[in-house]
Every structure is written in structure tokens, then in C-alpha cells.
Amino acid sequence: MADLFDISTRIIDSGQVDTPVNRITNELSELDDGLAIVESFSHCVALRTAEGVVCFDSSGVITGEAVVNALRGWTDDPISHLVYTHGHADHVGGSRFFAAAAERDGRQRPRVIGHDNVAARLDRYRYTSDWNVQINRRQFGGVGGTIAVGIGAGSNEGGGALPPFLPDDTLRPDETFTDVHSMYVGGEHIELHHARGETDDHLWAWLPDRRCIMSGDFVIWNFPNAGNPQKVQRYPSEWAAALRAMIAQQPEMLLPAHGLVISGRERIATVLDDIATALENLVSDVVAMMNGGATLDTIVHTVKVPQETLAKPYLRPLYDEPEFVVHNIWRLYGGWWDGVASHLKPAPDATVAVALAELAGGAEVLMRRAHQAAAAGDLRLACHLADFAGSAAPADPAIHAARAEIYQARRKAEPSLMSKGIYQAASRESERIANPPA
């Protein structure tokens, strides 16, 4: 089995990504005596103690069973504790298989530990289940449906009721904490530290005797997921502060929930500092422009992250991207209004589109101009015009075939999974109009 520390060391030190860094093998690698990781859609870290195995995250609904099987191939010791780094579906959805394995073995199910806000998150997922299924399909749909299924989106090809975003038997926390929680399990000292970042219920774990951090999604080997356009508020400033708190511990091992494990005090400090600095600079630049009276439109098209930063192997914008983080910083500090007066109480999009089509000479003229913009490489403008044309002619197959083509071109030009998924969804929306089922 590959030495995961050797792989990450080579990639970080060289700056060259010559092999996948976000691996879904469902295979277990022992990293230290009694310490292992199962690489999955969301990894599961396992710590073997004299009282049983402490696991950090359970992976998702589809991958959870494979994770449990991998753990059972490593040790037959009972899984005594399950720590949620946060309540996202790909971290807690597999917990049902941990409970089922314990029941089969005639053992108590793991004691689940998480932050105080995890239960509220699980309640919200139940309340907005269909919404979360739909947005996850859209978010991950640009790269194929298997990934969406892997985090609980399910399949609904035949229509009808949507599957639940999280199964009802997902394990809920037995024990929660607010700020810091210290515990001793079978001779192992474990500290859990809450910090808001990707979520408001996030924690990172510190094993002081092993000089090891389980960072959850504070490190994902992509640009931080601090701007997701379809999800609730993220907290980039507090995310950066959490990374700096990790640096202060001087860890020798860092085990993220996505991406490769990292070793070496200086190497870990460099990675964490680079991520923290990127977030801190984004926040300071956005807030400075807000204080200067700039609109969101101006800020979005002005504030950038240097390309040399985005080229680092652990900061590539292949999932989330800085432009989306800018939106989330505005939302955090400035609310939802973007500063444009007409956007405060706007006319319906379709009404505006019809008026523009009338002024232009028809939806066909708008679409022709959209094609010109696309041919010139201005896909942002092309998509605006294609949307106006599609809204002005909502049932025109030719218009929507052209709109689908433009959004396919936009999808292919985008680096991030989130952009690809949304643009693919837009293309499919028009394809259904252009080619209705018989």
C-alpha cells in the first residue's frame, strides 16, 4: 500500500500534483501504531485504545459500510466512540453502519460526540430534506451522479418522492460541548476544539501525546469551501483563526477529512498558514471595499486571489472558488442586498427579459448576440443574454437548444465543481425544453 505521507510530502515540497490528492479508495492505511485512516468520500480516522476504537467521522450513506468493513479488517476491537468533526452528510451519514455492526457483534453502539450545534443541523436537514437533495444533485451533477449519491442525494430517475437527504437512523450525538472538550479513552488523551469555519458546528481534534491533529474540513486539499453558493453561511475569518490555533500546537501529523495526510511540523505550518492567509486577505480586501462604499458587483469583479496562491496543490479552486467566498463575506457582514437600488424590490426576471427582447427585436436577436459573446470568449455576458432569451421565449425549442449549448460551453470552461454542476443543471433545463420527452 502506498505511503500516504510520502505522497503528500512529494507533492507539497515540489508543488507538482502528479497523482490524485482526493482519493476515494475505501482502503485503510495505518499511519502510526494504533492510528489509521480509511480514505473515502469523507475519510474516517481511527484511533485504537485500550477501551476500544475512537473514530473521527463515519463517511457518507453510500461509503459508510465500506469504511466499517475496512476498519474490521484492521481490528476486531469494538468501536467505542464516534466523533463528528461536523454534521455534513458525508461525515455522519455512514453512522448507521457503525450502529448496525455493533448490533451484529452484540456490542453497544459507539458513543457519539459532537459540537452543540450538530443536533440542530440534523434537524434542519430533516426539515429541508428535499431542498438539500436537489441542491446536492445540482452541485455535483456536473461531474456525474455517483458523487451526488455518495453524500446522500440518492436517485430519483422515475420521479415521485425524493429520498431523504439523511436516513432517519443516522446517529445523533450522545454528548456535546460548547468550546473545548478534553477526554481520556483507554490511555489516549483527546482534545476537541470548536471553531466556526465551513459550518457552525465544526471541531478539530488534537492528540497531544501523538502531536497529531484531525482537521476535519478545515483542510480539504482545495480552496476552502467558504463560499458555496447554494449552502448556508460560512465563516472565513474564524476558519483562518482555527488554522492558526492548529499551528500553535506544532503538530507533526495532520489528518484531514478530505485529501492527503501531511507530516512534518514545518510543512504542516506552511500549509495551514497559506490557507489562513488566503482567507484573511480575502476578508480584509472585501471589508475594506465595503467600508469604502463599493457595491457587491464592484467587489466581486475586483477582489482576487493571486494565481501563484491558487496554484499551490492544496489551494486549487477545483471545488469552491474565491469569487464565491467574496459573496459569502458580503453576506456575513452586509446582508443579502447587493447595493443596486433596482435589485431591492426587482421586477420578475421574465418581465425584464420580455421587455429587453422587445427592445432588441426578439428573443432570437438576444440569442444571436449571446453567440457572438461566446465566440469572443465572454461567456459571462453570453450566459446573461441566453438567460434573457430563454425567459422571453420559455417554450421555444430553438432558443433553448442554443441556451443549452452556451451553458455547456460555460461548464467546460469552469475549473470548480460547484460552477460545473450549476451550469450543467442550466443546460439540462433547456435541453428538456428543446427536446421534450415523447
Task: Describe the fold and architecture.
There is one protein chain. The protein has 438 residues and is of the alpha/beta class. The chain contains 17 helices and 13 strands. A hairpin with an 8-residue loop joins β9 and β10. It starts with a helix and ends with a helix. The model is unreliable at 144-158 (pLDDT under 50).
Keywords:
alpha/beta; single chain
Which structural category fits the helices and strands?
Answer: alpha/beta
Overall form: globular
Percentage of helical residues? 40-55%
Distance between the termini: 51 Å
Beta-strand portion reads 5-15%
The helix/strand order is HEEEEHEHHEHHHEEEEEHEEHHHHHHHHH
Order of the strands making up the biggest sheet: 1-2-3-4-5-6-7
What is the number of helical segments per DSSP (H or I, 4+ residues)? Answer: 17
Contiguous uncertain segments of 5+ residues:
144-158
Overall pLDDT level: 95
Tally of strands: 13
- Main β-sheet, in a few words? 7 strands, mixed
Radius of gyration: 23 Å
What is the secondary structure topology, with strand pairs?
Elements: H1 4-14, E1 27-32, E2 35-39, E3 44-49, E4 52-56, H2 64-74, E5 79-83, H3 89-92, H4 95-104, E6 111-115, H5 118-127, H6 129-140, H7 145-150, E7 175-177, E8 180-185, E9 188-194, E10 203-207, E11 212-216, H8 236-248, E12 253-256, E13 262-263, H9 265-291, H10 296-300, H11 307-310, H12 322-334, H13 349-360, H14 363-375, H15 379-392, H16 397-413, H17 417-434
Parallel strand pairs: 4-5, 5-6, 6-7, 11-12
Antiparallel strand pairs: 1-2, 2-3, 3-4, 8-9, 9-10, 10-11, 12-13
